[in-house]
Amino acid sequence: MSLTELLILIFVIAIVTFTLRIVPFILPKKIIQNDFMLSFGKKLPPGIMIILFLYSAGLSEEHMQRSFVISSFLAAIPVTLYFIWKKNAIISIFIGIMSFYFFYTYLKV
């Protein structure tokens, strides 16, 4: 990738990110407070997390090792339980990273 392509890519990503961040301030309150939008806002983050989990847990060709897939699913258990219990995403992510590396290192399947 050339420097020009990289700069164009960064510019496009910045514009899309800025646009997505500014849209809630531009849209009328009537649209934002719509029942569909409120429901969508509650369901979107878990949906994205499920997609990211499935991708990293073995749906990509790079992660098709058996120990990687098993470690990913085992690490999801304490993450899910802690997040349901305390609702703290940062500590849940930390627990996920630590438990994945623990299982991946010590679980030789």
**Order of helical and strand elements:** HHHHH
Overall geometric form: flat
Tell me roughly what share of residues is in helical segments: over 70%
Overall pLDDT score: 84
Q: Domains counted in the coordinates: how many?
A: 2
Keywords:
single chain, mainly alpha, 109 residues
SSE blueprint and pairings:
Elements: H1 3-26, H2 29-32, H3 35-59, H4 66-86, H5 89-106
Helix pairs in contact: 3-4, 4-5
At a glance:
The protein is mainly α. It has five helices and no strands.
Structure description:
With 109 residues, this protein is mostly helical. The chain has two domains: 1-33; 44-109, no CATH class. The protein is built from five helices and no strands. It has helices at residues 3-26, 29-32, 35-59, 66-86, 89-106. The longest helix is centred in the middle third of the chain and has 25 residues, at 35-59. The mean pLDDT is 84.
